Amino acid sequence: MGSSTLTDRAPKPVGAYPHARRVGNLLFLSGVGPRRPSDGSVPGLQLDAQGNLLSYDIAAQCHSVFDNVRNIVEAAGSTWQQIVDVTVFLTDIKRDFSTFNALYAEAFADNQPTRTTVEVNALPTPIAIELKVIATID
What we know:
This protein is of the alpha+beta class. 24% of the residues lie in helices and 28% in strands.
């Protein structure tokens, strides 16, 4: 049932799942973070020698996660304009929501999918944002 997509234009999944799965005319993306596809690094992330968070740049992570989502939907045969639903996970909604919201508004100026934004205690890697996306596909 459906077909799966993995692409080297997005960071490798951190578990046993594809980047996306098509079912009928819908494309479901697994959670997508801001890690760089080339080396898995997180833009703007600073950790100490023990791997504890020192600081991060939410704007850099937003731009990167949007790029990763775009690359996945395109690799699966869809487009940014065909995104119909976005679930956003932020690790610090009080600190990051206004910056995220402004960048999201720019990124989705010509396409306004439905959206849910929630705060989570942590994500599987040291990232501050992750998106879960549904798009249509022809």
